[in-house]
């Protein structure tokens, strides 16, 4: 059929570049998920959801939050999360992608400028593309580059609000943003600072509140906390001032016109926050595993990121997929990541350390990796 020929051609082109994606079933020891605290199969989350269902909690919301989809569980989560993260308000979305894209499509206005770190999540970029504000990229983790962008825009006549966007812990490199310096810069230029804590929530900070815990609650700070990574469930929470939360409820099309997340996922997220507070040993155990993995990496002359994310840069797209395949054949679930997810020439293995693995498994992984790399 001629109508689908162009799609076949596009897929063939991806295949010829060794960039064709395919869904794969779970197999082997988990070195690829974001289930950092092993909460996805937590008995406490199972019990919380089971008890909620026995009380009559609905599986589906049944509508958008502004219609009949606003359940008590949503409001309980948002109130509890605001207390936990020391924020004025939180707003629950179905996913981190949805929250990020909704935020950037709605809050920055036509006269504003959004400055995105060049390695920021695709969801932030998607939101900016859907919104009305101008945008520029800054060099990765380079505060001077951010300020240069501000000065250039102001010199060209820009008069609106500045929005500075960064991940606190970058998903593909495992490195941290200079949040303190970015906050100082935001205050200096009366800008908003938007911090994506997707890979830091639950892992870092007091009670697992993230790397931005000391900044949260300020009137020029917005923080995204995903519920589908270290918290073990699904959804995301935007932490922000009350007036911005109210603005999203009134103007954010993705919020207004979407069926609300499952009330059961709100129950799971609230229970996960309680686990963070009541079971600090999970973070301590993860920290110990990360330190062990760091020693293993150093022993094989591999760089250490300082977080639970260990990128191993291979460079060539085909080579990285061959090594990933070899690791899976040896029982280790490691995935290759290729452009455009990462910059051209930086195809990599993304090794994720979680409480789903042991020290023996980590040592076995790095030994296998050394064999496959030659």
Chain-wise SSE layout:
Blueprint: H1 5-16, E1 29-30, H2 43-54, H3 72-85, E2 89-93, H4 96-106, E3 113-117, H5 122-130, E4 134-138, H6 143-155, E5 162-167, H7 179-188, E6 192-196, E7 221-226, E8 236-240, H8 242-251, H9 253-256, H10 263-278, H11 281-299, E9 309-315, H12 317-329, E10 332-333, E11 335-337, E12 347-352, H13 359-373
Parallel strand pairs: 1-10, 3-4, 3-5, 5-6, 6-7
Antiparallel strand pairs: 2-8, 7-8, 9-12, 11-12
Helix pairs in contact: 2-10, 3-10, 4-5, 11-13
Please supply descriptive tags for the structure shown above.
374 residues, alpha/beta, Aspartate Aminotransferase, domain 1, Aspartate Aminotransferase, domain 2, 2 domains, 7-stranded mixed sheet, 3-stranded antiparallel sheet, 13 helices, 42% helix
Question: What does it look like?
Answer:
The protein is α/β, with parallel strands linked by helices and 374 residues long. It has two domains: 24-41 and 280-373, Aspartate Aminotransferase, domain 1 (Alpha-Beta Complex); 57-278, Aspartate Aminotransferase, domain 2, CATH 3.40.640. The chain contains 13 helices and twelve strands. The protein has helices at 5-16, 43-54, 72-85, 96-106, 122-130, 143-155, 179-188, 242-251, 253-256, 263-278, 281-299, 317-329, 359-373; strands at 29-30, 89-93, 113-117, 134-138, 162-167, 192-196, 221-226, 236-240, 309-315, 332-333, 335-337, 347-352. Strands 2-8-7-6-5-3-4 form a seven-stranded mixed β-sheet, with helices on both faces. A three-stranded antiparallel β-sheet has the order 9-12-11, covered by helices on one side. Helix 5 (122-130) links the parallel strand 3 (113-117) and strand 4. It is globular. The N and C termini lie far apart (46 Å). The relative contact order is 0.17.
């Amino acid at each position: 059929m001629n109508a689908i020929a162009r799609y076949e051609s596009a897929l063939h082109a991806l295949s010829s570049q060794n960039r064709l994606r395919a869904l794969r079933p779970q197999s082997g020891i988990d070195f690829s998920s974001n289930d950092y605290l092993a909460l996805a199969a937590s008995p406490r989350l199972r019990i919380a959801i089971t008890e909620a269902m026995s009380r009559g909690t609905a599986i589906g919301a049944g509508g958008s939050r502004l219609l009949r989809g606003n359940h008590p569980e949503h409001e309980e989560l948002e109130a509890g999360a605001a207390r936990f993260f020391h924020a004025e308000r939180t707003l629950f979305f179905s996913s981190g992608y949805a929250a990020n894209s909704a935020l950037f499509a709605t809050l920055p206005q036509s006269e504003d400028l959004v400055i995105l770190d060049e390695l920021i999540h695709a969801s932030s970029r998607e939101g900016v593309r859907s919104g009305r504000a101008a945008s520029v990229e800054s060099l990765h983790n380079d505060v001077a580059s951010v300020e240069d962008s501000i000065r250039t825009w102001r010199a060209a006549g820009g008069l609106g609000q500045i929005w500075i966007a960064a991940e606190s812990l970058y998903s593909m490199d495992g490195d941290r943003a200079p949040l303190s310096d970015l906050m100082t810069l935001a205050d200096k230029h009366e800008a908003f600072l938007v911090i994506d804590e997707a890979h830091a929530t639950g892992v870092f900070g007091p009670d697992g509140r993230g790397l931005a815990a000391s900044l949260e609650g300020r009137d020029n700070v917005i923080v995204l906390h995903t519920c589908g990574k270290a918290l073990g469930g699904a959804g995301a929470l935007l932490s922000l001032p009350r007036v911005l939360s109210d603005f999203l409820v009134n103007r954010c099309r993705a919020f207004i016109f979407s069926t609300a997340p499952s009330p059961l996922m709100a129950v799971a997220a609230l229970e996960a926050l309680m686990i963070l507070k009541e079971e600090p040993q999970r973070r301590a155990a993860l920290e110990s595993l990360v330190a062990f993995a760091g020693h293993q990496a150093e022993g094989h002359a591999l760089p250490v990121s300082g977080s639970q994310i260990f990128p191993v840069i291979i460079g060539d797209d085909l080579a990285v997929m061959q090594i990933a395949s070899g690791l899976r054949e040896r029982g280790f679930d490691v995935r290759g990541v290729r452009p455009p997810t990462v910059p051209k020439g930086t195809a990599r293995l993304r090794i994720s350390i979680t409480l789903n693995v042991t020290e023996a498994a980590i040592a076995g992984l790095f030994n296998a990796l050394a064999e496959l790399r030659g």
